[in-house]
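Section 3.1: Structural characterization of target chains.
Under the original work plan, the team committed to producing a structural model for every single-chain target entering the pipeline before any wet-lab resources were allocated. The record below documents one such target. The sequence was received from the expression subgroup and is listed exactly as submitted; it comprises 118 residues.
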Amino acid sequence: QVQLLESGGGLVQAEGSLRLSCTTSRGTFGSYTMGWFRQAPGKERELVALIRSGGNTYYADSVKGRFTTSRNNARNTVYLQMETLKPEDTAVYYCAARRYGSSSFDYWGQGTQVTVSS
């Protein structure tokens, strides 16, 4: 079973920055599409960003230009650099891994809280 472990969440003031990391315990990390999701209280979970095995990225409109995802396959780690944070970015952030050929994300981390104060 692949395990994902997020880190880097916390409390930050508006306009501040945070970097989230997600490390996998096993599996063929280099072949996975890695995604970052978030869920705010009372809201559905939403996809924030993803990075494919080849390095192509996708960002939700709400974070485009402020968030950047990257990966280091040698370290089995994916990152989410968050800049110019807003109070509406407050949520639990999850990383997830999708195996090659899978139609959905197969493995999920436990989540890390990001709180942005105004």
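The radius of gyration is 13 Å.
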